[in-house]
Amino acid sequence: MPAVLAGLLVGLLTLVAAPAQAHDVLLSTSPAADQTLGERPTEIVLTFNNDLLDSTQAVVVADAAGQKVAEVAGVVAGPAATFALPTPLGDGSYRVTWSVVSSDGHRIDGEYGFSVAGTGAATPTPEPTAAATPSPAGGDVVTTPQPTTQPEQGKDQGGFPGWVAVVLALGVAGGVIAIAIRNWPRKG
Fold first, then answer.
1. Does one domain contain both 167 and 102?
2. Per residue in 21-54, pLDDT tens?
3. How many helices (H) and strands (E) does the chain have?
């Protein structure tokens, strides 16, 4: 009889255990990570593997000295969050620190860098000036930021899925119960 009860208990625990969910992961960015742009970006786009929740999404853009250049709330459309920069970024290196709410309701964040070169603008300006920026000489091609695939980023990039831990825990619990029942003193 105790063995039957132990088996029922293990079976019940297996049925009521909630499956673990992994957080969404960043698939691509625009500007791309480590990309050098030939023109001033006006927005940052982060694309994830699942639809994001329409909640507070934000990016902070800092220059090479670590000074905050922009802090922007995003607009969510499916798996993409778009962050319009208040002023286009000038020449230099930038670090984007992002924070979004993934489809499972948990906040995830990360960061990446990119550079801007050859635009003639040293720092972001509040309004475009009347002076024209020199265009590239000799028909040089100016690159446009394009989303590219990059390594997954985010907080929860662990070694194995959460469901594996649940299965292992249930197996250990079942083994402990079976040993305890087998060694239980018998009457009679």
1. no
2. 567 889 999 999 999 999 999 999 999 999 998 8
3. 2, 10
Neighbours of 35 (CB within 10 A): 19
Nearest to 37 by CA among 140, 118, 128: 118
Tell me how many domains the chain contains: 2
- Quick: pLDDT tens for 116-132: 998 776 655 433 434 44
Which residue shows structure tokens 């230099």? 92
Phi first, then psi, for residue 64 (nearest 5°) are -60, -25
* Helix 162-182 with 2-16: angle, nearest 10 deg: 170
Residue 100's domain is classified under what CATH number?
Answer: 2.60.40.1220
Structure tokens at 127: 């309004």
Residue 86 domain boundaries = 26-149
What does residue 48 show for φ and ψ, rounded to 5 degrees? -115, 175
Q: Is residue 156 part of a domain?
A: no
Task: Decide if 61 is inside a domain.
Answer: yes
The angle at the Cα of 109, spanning 146 to 114, to the nearest 5 degrees, equals 35
pLDDT in tens, 140-183: 444 444 444 444 444 444 444 566 667 778 888 888 888 888 88
